[in-house]
Amino acid sequence: KTIGDAKEFLQAExxxxxxxxxxxxxxxxxxxxxxxxxxxxxxxDLLVMGRPEGSGCYCYVNNLLRGIMDKLVKNYDLVVIDAExxxxxxxxxxxxxxxxxxxxxxxxxxxxxxxxxxxxxxDELESNIGSIHVIANKVTDTNREKLVKLAxxxxxxxxxxxxxxxxxxxxxxxxxxxxxxxxxxxxxxEIENIVKKLGF
Length: 200
Fold this sequence. Notes:
The strands form 2 sheets. The chain has a 3-stranded parallel β-sheet, with helices on both faces. By secondary structure, the chain is of the alpha/beta class. The protein has 8 helices and 5 strands. Helix 1 packs antiparallel against helix 2. InterPro entries: NifH/frxC, P-loop_NTPase, ParA/MinD_ATPase.
């Protein structure tokens, strides 16, 4: 179950006639659904954002969710949100007060341009975001220097470049989860370096 499922559930509930319970507290319903789908793991909890919205206006549901997420994040020292690719997350402002925004892109000019657009959108919306970092993924030796220059050209804070890793490709084909990535993986080593740079 995901946040997307909880939003779809409440959206459907809102449109139902409720002669038996006209004063249903919609925020309480959504909050209970959100807490219900939190997966408790050893050392951390997992809450999956889920798919994009379906048809119809989700403004009211998003407003409720915004308040719930504001309360929820206060229960944790560190919150990591892995959002789907796209710009709509920023315009909806479901998550506010971000210390570090990390934009992960592929090793392409188009990807870096999208990262630049995200930076511009964050400024336009006057979002409360501390720092914006860019990570390039699947980087090869042949394009490493070009990406550094491109980041400088676009004034992007390129905090790391994760190499194209044959071990990850092999794990993906075999269906092995990334949690089992070996410590000597070149990608794992770079990710550890990035985490240290971020101070986590």
